[in-house]
Design a protein that fits this description.
The complex is a heterodimer. Chain A is of the alpha+beta class. Chain A has one helix and eight strands, in the order αββββββββ. Chain A has one helix at 3-29, and strands spanning 50-56, 60-66, 73-79, 88-94, 104-109, 113-119, 129-135, 140-146. In chain A, β1 (50-56) and β2 (60-66) form a beta hairpin. Chain B folds into two domains: 12-220; 228-327, 3-layer Sandwich (Rieske Iron-sulfur Protein). By secondary structure, chain B is an alpha+beta fold. Classes of the chains: A alpha+beta, B alpha+beta. The complex binds protoporphyrin IX containing FE and FE2/S2 (inorganic) cluster. The site of protoporphyrin IX containing FE (HEM) has 25 residues of chain B, from α2, α4, α6 and α9.
Chain lengths: 147, 348
């Protein structure tokens, strides 16, 4: 390498040392409702016994489950048909207006199958709550379920 | 200079290297498929391809970018550098599989052109959280494609090594774009922080390695040589250089490799004509200075590659006074024969 090339490498990496951490950190900070760290937590497999609320459409079935003392909560989500958008995430909103930045992210699903997500206890209950299915590739809401 | 140096065993090494790359990739893909099957069996085959190829490409990209500084810091990594091109082309193919499958899976069914759809299906360019993260991925893939296509020595000769090197610096930009593609993409929708931690650790490691290597190089470039006489500068003692090896000195902004070959000292320009490898970090094999990066060879006394090759580097005048090596940094035209200098004590 010539000296000029070495200097250019050094300058590029000095710039990268500044820009990459800024980029990574700012992207990390805007992750909606990021949860406390639980690195290798396996996906929950065991269903809680009590079905507290249930709702569905012709494509999906959603059940909010809890245990007998109502200390733990789960969302059981079933795709009844195969999804046509393979980039779906589920958000929870109260009311009608939805914006991914402010909604609560429940989790990501694939095109088929059954999923279980743990939920934060919700003292206001689920009546009137909506689950939004959001396609993040095309930035559009594809479906919703109202409880 | 594309005929291989089979005499020094480069070809066997090349095959071994390719074998290791292939074995690593296959093992990774099998493990990825296995773990997906255990933990997330609902994933379709297309999604499995998209995710396994992308993550493997990112791992290879980190390895590729770490090889350069690792070799600067520790010469035992040099064999990795030798065949970095194959690693680069493999990485591009994996990234391309990921890109093509993503476009087919996510953009083929709409009523606009799939490539256009990558850029306009989400137009939140003013939002960080909802940014159209595929756009940086696409631009990175184009850069990686240009690198892969021009990586062959044919292009090196036709583009001039300088332009080629400049072109290949764009890989750093591609890397930054890939990092943002991942950070603004799946990471925004994935509650498991493993991917963020991996991306962050990977980037920080690369930054630290490159800065350390730059610091080390800077020391060589800024070392002060103060003893001067009639245009010559004193660089070191004869005993500082082992036979068949060299030391590198930066005199008047140029690096010069001072080699000891049998009982003589020779000096040639340190920059290999192939891709700028440091000739002074190689050694003399079969009577030729052999570049540590890919094995190009030069004769110590005239800086010329042995026939049939035509590469030439500059040579420099050397003299020895009281067992000290004195070098004249004024280069002779490339390929000029020099007698070198001999110590009075040699052979005694
Ligand atoms: C045409 C260019 C590209 C397109 C359209 C594209 C598209 C995508 C999409 C849609 C996802 C989310 C996939 C999912 O649902 O899991 C994704 C994720 C990802 N991409 Fe790309 N990408 C491109 C280029 C690249 C390149 C060049 C790299 C790296 C070398 C890369 C690395 C990744 C990684 C590591 C992920 C996260 C893991 C995954 O989900 O696959 N992508 N990309
Ligand atoms: S042989 Fe490739 S840089 Fe010297």
């Amino acid at each position: 390498m010539t000296k000029n090339l070495r200097i250019r490498h050094r300058q590029i990496w000095a710039l990268m040392a500044l820009l990459l951490p800024i980029g990574i950190l700012s992207a990390w900070l805007v992750i909606p409702n990021h949860e406390p760290v639980k690195i290798l937590k396996p996906r929950e497999q065991v269903l809680l016994p009590v079905i507290a609320y249930t709702a569905g459409t012709e494509h999906f079935q959603a059940r909010v489950r809890t245990n007998t003392d109502r200390s733990a909560w789960q969302l059981e989500w079933i795709n009844k048909t195969i999804l046509t958008t393979p980039s779906a995430v589920i958000y929870k909103i109260k009311g009608e207006t939805f914006a991914p930045e402010s909604a609560e992210l429940i989790g990501r699903i694939e095109t088929q199958g059954r999923y279980i997500f743990s939920l934060q206890p919700d003292s206001t209950g689920w009546v009137g709550t909506r689950l939004i299915l959001y396609d993040f590739i095309h930035a559009q809401r594809t479906d919703s379920i109202k409880f | 200079m594309s005929v291989s140096y089979s005499a020094v065993g480069w070809n066997r090494q090349k095959k071994l290297y390719d074998g290791i790359i292939a074995a690593f990739c296959i093992t990774y893909l099998i493990l990825f498929a296995g773990f997906t099957w255990i933990f997330n069996a609902q994933v379709t085959f297309e999604t499995l391809i998209i995710r396994s190829a992308s993550t493997l490409a990112v791992i290879l990209l980190h390895i590729i970018l770490a090889i350069g500084p690792l070799c600067r810091l520790q010469s035992k990594f040099l064999p990795l550098l030798y065949n970095r091109r194959h690693l680069g082309v493999t990485m591009f193919f994996l990234a391309a599989i990921h890109g093509v499958f993503s476009i087919l899976q996510f953009h083929a069914l709409g009523n606009i052109h799939p490539l256009l759809s990558v850029f306009v299906s989400n137009t939140n360019y003013d939002s960080l959280a909802a940014f159209p993260f595929q756009a940086p991925g696409f631009i990175a893939l184009i850069i990686l494609m240009i690198m892969a296509v021009t990586s062959h020595d044919f292009w090196l000769h036709n583009l001039s090594p300088r332009l080629w090197k400049t072109l290949h610096m764009f890989v750093y930009m591609a890397y930054a774009l890939v990092v943002m593609h991942v950070m603004l993409g799946v990471i925004q929708y994935e509650q498991n922080p493993l991917l963020v931690i991996l991306v962050f650790t990977g980037s920080i490691s690369l930054i630290v390695l490159h800065l350390l290597a730059a610091q080390k190089e800077r020391k060589t470039d800024e070392a002060k040589l103060t003893a001067k006489q009639d245009g010559f500068v004193m660089v070191c003692k004869i005993t500082d250089i082992e036979n068949t090896r060299a030391k590198i000195f930066c005199v008047e902004k140029e690096r010069i490799a001072v080699y000891r070959h049998e009982d003589r000292i020779y000096a040639i320009h340190n920059v290999c004509k192939h891709q700028g490898g440091p000739l002074g970090e190689g050694r003399i094999l079969d009577g030729c200075i052999t570049c540590p990066w890919h094995g190009y060879q030069y004769l110590p006394h005239n800086g010329q590659s042995p026939p049939p090759f035509k590469e030439k580097v500059s040579t420099y005048a050397i003299k020895i006074i009281h067992e000290e090596i004195w070098l004249n940094p004024q280069p002779f035209p490339e390929g000029t024969t020099q007698t070198g200098a001999k110590s009075d004590n040699y052979g005694q």
